[in-house]
Amino acid sequence: MDDVLIEKIKSGNDHAFRVLVEKYRNTVFHTVYGVLRNEKDAEDAAQEVFIKIYTSLPQYEKQGFKTWITRIAVNHAIDIKRKQVRRQEDQRVEYEETDHSPPADSVELLVIKREKQFLIRKRLEEMPDNYREVVEGFYILEKSYQELAEEQNVQVKTIETKLYRARQWMKKHWKEDDFS
């Protein structure tokens, strides 16, 4: 049945494509919804998936149509999800880089964070040299793992390891109530 529809679509039969869309509309919608978890986004994505299916039909080689369109739908939904996450991260960075005052409910968190930074700064001199630099860079100067790795000319994994070991050292040598 699908192969006949596909051949008709390839030869320019728009009605055959409408029949195909109707047949697989729910499958595609539920597939993209499973990734995106938002009805409006899933509806938009499903329409985009059908456009991709239509334009990709010449490459379809009768390898299981439902599997083929499901793979297109999943890949498209994952692409959308990645873009959404990237957009949220960009917005968060923009917010952090602007001089806006923080929302009222985060003022308390900001004060606590500043106090912890002050305590860490005060106790930093007690730390071994190899931990001091990453702790200061990450917790006080608020640099990313990537920035620290580039400054120290090491891999990001090395920074992660140093911070992990520094935290272990702090847990062992500093009382928990010093920082809570």
UniProtKB/TrEMBL annotation:
Chain ranges of the RNA polymerase sigma-70 region domain: 20-86
GO terms of biological process kind: DNA-templated transcription initiation
Pfam families, per the entry: Sigma70_r2 (PF04542), Sigma70_r4_2 (PF08281)
Keywords per UniProt: Sigma factor, Transcription, Transcription regulation
Every RNA polymerase sigma factor 70 region 4 type domain range: 119-170
Family assignment from sequence similarity: Belongs to the sigma-70 factor family. ECF subfamily.
Protein name: Sigma-70 family RNA polymerase sigma factor
Organism: Lederbergia citrea
Lineage: Bacteria, Bacillati, Bacillota, Bacilli, Bacillales
